[in-house]
Structure formats: C-alpha cells, structure tokens
Amino acid sequence: MTDSWPLHLALLAAGVGAGFLNTVAGGGSMLTLPVLMLLGLPADIANGTNRLSVVSQALTGVTGFYRAGKLDRGHVAPVLAPTILGSALGAYAASSTPEHILEYTLLGTMMSMALLLALRPGAVTAPEGSTPRAIGRTPSALAGLFVAGVYAGFVQAGVGFLLLSVLGGLLRFDLLRANALKLVCALVFGVVALSVFALANQVAWLEASLLAAYTVIGSLLGVRFAVRVPRRVLRWVIFTAVVAVCIAALVRG
User: Fold this and answer.
1) DSSP state of 167
2) What pLDDT is attached to residue 90?
3) Is the model's pLDDT at 85 over the cut of 80?
4) How far lies 134's CA from each of 172, 184, 187, in Å?
5) What are the Cα distances from residue 190, in Å, to 58, 126, 131, 212?
C-alpha cells in the first residue's frame, strides 16, 4: 500500500462518504473504487477489496435501523428469497451475457425512479407508517426483486436504487423501512461476493480493513441522518444520488 498520506485521506473521505450514501440512498462504490485504484490496486483486486466495506456498512446500517425500530423482520425472508435466487442465476450466467445490456437497463430504471421521485414521489415511496403489501400477492414485486438479484449477480453497483424502487414503489414500504430491507439484501450479496473474491485471492486485506472501518463511520452517520430528517429531505438526497450515479456511469461508458 502506498505511503502517500493524501491518498490515505482520500480513502478515509471516500469510505465515510460511501458508507453514508449507501445507507441513505446508494452508489457509494462510485467513490471508493476509483480511490482504491489510485492506491495502486488493479481493477479486479479493487473490486474484491471493496466488498468487505459493502458488508461492514450494510451490517452497521441494518443494526442501526433495527435499533431504531425501522426493520420489518417479518418481511426479511420473503424479500431475500427472490433476490438470492436471482443473484445465483445472475452470477451463473455472467460469463455469457453482455454486461452492458443490464447496465443500460438499470440506468433507465434509475432515471425513471429519479423522475418519479421529483414529480410523483408517491409512485415510488409510501407515507411513513403505511401497511406494506404482501410480497406473495404482488407478482410485479416478486419479479422486480428477482431482476434486482440477477443484476446484483452480474454487476452489483447501483442495485440499491433498483431495490428501493421495488420496495417503495411496488411493496409500499416507506423510505426508512425500504432502506433497511435494501441493506439486508446488500449484506447478503456482499457476503457471497466477498467469499468469491477471497477464494480467488482478489482481496487486499489491509486496504479492505481500513475502508471497512471508514464506511462503518459513514453508515452510522447515515442512519442517524435518515431517522431524523424529514422524509422530503431524504427523498431529495436519494434523487440527487440517483442522478449523480447515472451521470457518472454514462460518462464512464
């Protein structure tokens, strides 16, 4: 690992920022992956190294939302079932399907979500305290969660936005509860992905450990922010994050 203190500080800033963003919205890896590569890690090692921070911030966020009474434990298993199945199939098929097809599909979904958040927030979020719909009785939600899992198996980056659109728009969870369930899914995806990268010796554990610690700080701040600010503020934070990630992905492409 390089001894450049400016890059260490950049890793700290990116970690805290990513932990915060991924807890209240998504897209935090857009901050951490470039910094890991600036530290001298090859792209594949940077991708694997980043996964420990995904696990740490998701676990911190889930714990925080649970303590705040915002995690609907009864819905965890129904939400995870289709997403895990989709993730397994997505990972299996990753070698034969062009990644850009799913990337552009996700970008279109994310931009649609951003427009709805700005123009018709009720279409993708439910009022606080709303009664969610039963997952088994909402076929479109089952399909959406499955697609989110497939995308996570392929790419992962940005899948949190897709999960939010399904959990809020179709199943009618409010933003806080949708975020909590989103982080449960991210935790499961992260553990699976980290295991794969670790077995392939594609994790730089020193950098991974530092980044994981920094993202925990950001995640703790994110939970405190999310449970205290008005829902309209949280909605505009998510809107800004969606637009920023879409622009970054298009520029990168």
Assistant:
1) I
2) 72
3) yes
4) 10, 18, 23
5) 8, 27, 29, 12
Residue 49: closest CA among 214, 216, 194:
194
- Residue 27, burial from CB neighbour count under 10 angstroms (0-12, 13-18, 19+): buried
CB 167 within 8 A of CB 238: no
Cβ atoms 35, 207 nearer than 8 A: no
Confidence (pLDDT) at 2:
52
- Cα–Cα distance, 59 to 167 (Å, whole number): 19
Q: How many domains does one find in the chain?
A: 1
Reduce the DSSP state of residue 154 to 3 states and report it.
Answer: helix
Cα-based angle 86, 91, 92 (whole degrees, multiple of 5): 100
d(CA 203, CA 106): 27
Domain with 93, as residue range(s), is: 5-252
**Crossing angle, helix 175-199 and helix 231-252, to 10 degrees?**
40
Q: Which tokens in the block code for residue 199?
A: 């077995």
Question: Left (φ > 0), alpha (ψ -120 to 50) or beta: where does 97 sit?
Answer: beta
For 127-166, the pLDDT digits (tens) are 776 788 888 889 999 998 998 888 777 666 677 888 888 8
Evaluate whether 200 touches 152 at the Cβ level (below 8 Å): no
Alpha helices in 125-174 (DSSP H): 139-154, 159-164
Whole-angstrom distance, CA of residue 178 vs CA of residue 181: 5
Q: Which two tokens stand for residue 102?
A: 């799913």
- pTM here is 0.79
One-letter amino acid for residue 151 of the chain: Y
